User: What shape does this take?
Amino acid sequence: MPGTVTGKIKRKFMAHYIDAAAPAASGGTAKYVRLGKDLEEFNVEMNANVDTKSNIWGETSVNLDSYQPQASAEPYYAEIGDPLFGRLQTIIDERQTLDDLKTSVVEVHLWEEHETKTGSYVAYKEDAIIEVSSYGGDTTGYQIPFNVHHTGNRVKGLFALATKTFTEDGKE
Assistant: This one.
């Protein structure tokens, strides 16, 4: 897709995918959809847990012991035929909670193509929860903004663009 990337990396080369398949219905088969079509910006906020203490000597110690990453997709315009729209609308219609909201996200480094597997790129997959924050919108179209809360189990692997499949390192 991108060819050789040199110098500063353009934003389009950091691709974010979310599994749009419902957890129970997927039978383990992910249906990854790339985020960003209508987004001018998409940031994963790391939300570090930082503990800062000062002792009686006037010294300060800082400990960062965990992250609680999350991202917000706003706006998200509903589009007939988009599997992610179907997933989000089901969350709204059924007022889903708990395990029904589970999914996975994959961050793909489109600047790091595998040396021998053309069309496959270095990627990181992580479990996540989808939180629909609202729905409706203005005259520009039906909008379903949502948040993605990363819940852990981050693993490195390869993502094949043609098939939209993730393979964990060592499981080829």
Q: What stands out?
A: The beta strands are 14-19, 32-34, 44-45, 48-54, 60-67, 70-73, 102-113, 120-132, 146-160, 165-168. The chain has one domain: 11-168. The helical segments are 23-26, 83-94.
